[in-house]
Design brief:
This protein has about 300 residues and is α/β, with parallel strands linked by helices. It has helices spanning about 1-10, 15-20, 25-30, 40-50, 65-85, 110-125, 140-155, 170-175, 200-220, 230-240, 260-270, 285-295, 295-305; strands at about 55-60, 95, 130-135, 160-165, 185, 220-225, 250-255, 275-280. It has a single domain, classed as TIM Barrel (Alpha-Beta Barrel), CATH 3.20.20.220. The chain contains 13 helices and eight strands. The chain has an eight-stranded parallel sheet. Strand 2, helix 6 and strand 3 (about 130-135) form a beta-alpha-beta unit. Helix 8 (about 170-175) runs parallel beside helix 9. The protein starts with a helix and ends with a helix. The structure holds dihydroflavine-adenine dinucleotide (FDA). Dihydroflavine-adenine dinucleotide binds near residues 136, 254, 258, 259 and 290.
């Protein structure tokens, strides 16, 4: 319930102003966001790689409102990819891209603009010897995003897709995407969706996650298990063993700042673990989704909004 209220309220410009200027926001943001610049993202990535982890770097931004902004985000990705390569990190550092950041929601030819910008990011990633995963946003964008993934894969077969277990459609999408070499990140889903398209109960979402994971783990693709949920992590391990998958033929993914000990524990036992590392100034939407996942943080955060310090 709190999750739904937060995610709906996140569209309010007044709340946005309040959160962005609140004194304690910075502290909460620092927990989940690597910093504001490409240099920050590269520095944090270097530290995570030194701990045996891999990363997916995300230039924060979504709901881009004009073409220039979309191109700015594209260029920011090109820059961070070059910096990761120059620092010798890019083999273990891919990037995650939100199509809404590179123009998908622009009126008229938004999907085409997003595809062209994403294409250039894929070229920059290839030059840096790494790859791209396209994040998944709310359900109104799923078809368009999967179609762009399909188009990009013609020239860049390693482009990753994201599927959200809370959507009713996702088992079908897993079957479609479980082909040879297909990189699929499975997550629970972070947006506020109507009951007509999404499961709302935690149990229902978790059961859907397991059904989807069974499809991905038993197929010839490359599953990316994006969850912090201890039970699902255990089930993923069992499914990998049942399907005789060796470590490195799938990976675990977690967010920067969440369950860091578990990230390192999995890496120590030989699992491949990728940390999602967001950076940039446009942290508002990302932060609200993280708070919505963690009710314990919300009361603290709301009190901080009232603080005058
Ligand atoms: P759940 O929310 O049940 O959390 C399990 C446990 O993890 C909690 O009990 C808590 O201990 C810890 N935890 C989880 N979230 C936390 C937080 N914010 N702060 C502190 N502790 C927390 N979604 C989407 O719609 N599109 C996308 O493209 C992506 N991409 C993506 C990439 C990666 C690498 C990850 C890990 C996640 C995403 N997500 C996403 C987000 C995802 O859909 C989901 O909202 C979060 O991962 C939280 O769900 P969990 O599976 O972790 O379970």
């Amino acid at each position: 319930m709190l999750r739904q209220v937060l995610l709906s309220a996140s569209r309010s410009p007044r709340l946005r102003r309040l959160v962005e200027t609140a004194p304690l926001s910075k502290q909460v943001v620092a927990r989940y966001v690597a910093g504001t610049t490409a240099e920050d993202a590269v520095r944090i990535s270097g530290r995570l790689l030194a701990d045996g982890l891999t990363v997916s770097v995300d230039q924060l931004g979504e709901d881009t409102i004009d073409r220039a902004q979309a191109e700015g985000i594209r260029d920011a990705y090109t820059l961070v990819l070059k910096q990761l390569a120059d620092a010798g990190l890019s083999r273990d550092a891919e990037v995650s891209v939100k199509l809404s950041a590179v123009g998908q929601a622009l009126p008229g030819d938004g999907a085409k603009i997003a595809y062209e910008n994403a294409y250039q990011i894929c070229e920059a990633a290839k030059a840096a010897d790494t790859t791209v995963t396209l994040d998944m946003e709310d359900h109104t964008t799923t078809d368009s995003t999967l179609s762009i993934v399909g188009d990009l894969r013609k020239d860049f077969p390693s482009v990753g897709a994201v599927l959200q277990a809370y959507l009713h459609r996702t088992e079908g999408d897993c079957l479609d995407l479980a082909g040879e070499g297909s990189r699929v990140r499975l997550c629970k889903g972070a947006y506020f969706e109507p009951e007509s398209v999404a499961y709302h109960g935690r149990g229902e979402v978790d059961r859907s996650y397991v059904r989807c994971l069974k499809i991905l783990m038993s197929g010839p693709g490359y599953p990316m298990v994006a969850t912090h949920d201890p039970r699902l992590i255990e089930i993923a391990g069992s499914l990998a063993a049942q399907n005789r998958r060796v470590q490195g033929s799938y990976e675990y993914q977690m967010l920067y700042g969440v369950r860091q000990e578990e990230q390192r524990r999995l890496a120590r036992v030989g699992e491949k673990v990728r940390v999602y590392v967001p950076y940039g100034d446009e942290w508002y939407g990302y932060l609200i989704r993280r708070l919505a996942e963690r009710p314990a943080n919300v009361a603290f955060f709301l009190r901080s909004l009232m603080s005058k310090k």
